[in-house]
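Researcher: I need the complex structure. Ligand is s-citryldethia Coenzyme A. Inputs:
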Amino acid sequence: MTTEPEIRKGLAGVVVDYTAISKVNPETNSLLYRGYPVQELAASCSFEEVAYLLWNGELPNAEQLAAFAADERSQRSLDDAVKRVIDELPLTAHPMDVVRTAVSVIGALDPTWADASPEGNLTKSVSLFAKLPAIVAYDQRRRRGLDLVEPDAELGYSANFLAMTFGEVPSKVVVDAFDVSMILYAEHSFNASTFTARVVTSTLADLYSAVVAAIGALKGPLHGGANEAVMHIFDEIGSADRAEEWLDAALAEKRKIMGFGHRVYKNGDSRVPTMKAALDTLIVEYDAPELGELYTALDDAMQNRKAIKPNLDYPSGPAYRLIGFDTEMFTPLFVASRVTGWTAHIMEQLASNALIRPLSLYNGVPERHLE
Ligand code: SDX
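Model: Output:
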C-alpha cells in the first residue's frame, strides 16, 4: 500500500532552493539584505546604495556609487513609444496594468532582450530601476490631466521620483521617508512575485518576461496589492472611533483584513517598526494626527480580536497617502522598489538554474476510454 505524498498547499513551509540575497528569519523577526540588517541599511544608506548591494553583493564605495548613479540617472527618460502606449491606455486601466504593459513594451523595444549574460541582465535591471519612476509618475499625472515632468539628473533617486510625480521636490522629511519605504520594499526572499520571477527564469525566458510575470503576481491583494487595500479600508472606516465596529463587522463576514498577517513572520513583520517610524515623521510633517489615531485604533482592535500583527503594507499605505500618491498608485510604488529584488533573484536563478516544475496528485475521474 503506497502512502500518498503530503500535499503542501501554497508551498507553505517548503524550502525549494538556496538564496544569498536576503535572509528572512521569523524566529528572530529579522531581515538581512546580503548580511546587513535592513534597519541599518534604512538608517544609513540610500535606496541607490541598497539596489547596488542587492545586485553586486557589496555596498558601493564612493567611486562605484558615483558611476552607478551616473548610469542610472542617464536612463530615467521614457522612450516616446512607451509614452505613446501609456497614452493609449484608458484612465480606467489599473495603474498596475499600466506598469506591467510599459515594462513589456520596454522589453519589446530592447534589441538586447535575449542577452542573459550577467552583464546583460545587470544592464537591463538598472534600466528598469531607472525608468519605473517615470512610468509611475507619468501615470499619476496623466490621471490628473497634468503633463509629464522630465527627470532631473541633478536629483537622487527618491527626490527625482517625487519631483516627477508632484512637480517639485518635497521636504527632506518626505524624501527620506519615501526612500526608507523603497529600501524596505526592495527584497524579501521567495515571496510570491519573486518566486514567480524565478519560475519564469527557470525556463530560460528573458528578464523582461520574468519581471512582467512578477508584476502580475504582485498585483494581488494577498501580496503587493495589500498596501492599496489598506488605504481603502482606512477610507471605509473614516475615523478612529469607528475602527472597532468596522472590524467586528468585517471579521463577522470572514474578510481578510488587509495589511495584517504574513506567511513567514508569525510574530510581526520585522520591517514594520522602521516604516511606522517613517510614517510618524510624515504624520507630524503633514499635521495629520487623525490618521495616526486611526492606524493605532485598527491595529489595537485587531490585536484584541485576532492577535494578527501588521505587515509592511499597513504603515506604507497611509505614508503614501500623506505624500500625495493616488491610492491605486501604491502597488506600482512597490514594483519600483521590488524590481531590484526580482532582478537580483533572476540573475541568481540563472547562475545555478534548474527548471522549476513541481508535481501534482491526480484526484480527477479514474481512467476511462472512448467507446
Ligand atoms: C506581502 O511573502 C512575503 O514576503 C510577502 C511580502 C513581501 O515583502 O514580498 O511580505 C509582502 O505580501 C505582505 C502580505 C500582504 N497581504 C495582506 O496584508 C493580505 C491580508 N493577509 C492575509 O491574506 C494573510 O495574512 C496572508 C495571505 C498574508 C498570509 O496568509 P497565510 O500564511 O496563508 O495564513 P492563512 O491565510 O492560512 O491564515 C491563517 C489564519 C486563517 O484563519 P483560519 O481560516 O485558519 O481560521 O489566520 C487568519 C486566516 O483567516 N488570517 C487572517 C488574516 N491573516 C490570516 N484573518 C483576517 N485578516 C488577515 N489579514
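Model: Summary of the prediction. The mean pLDDT is 97.
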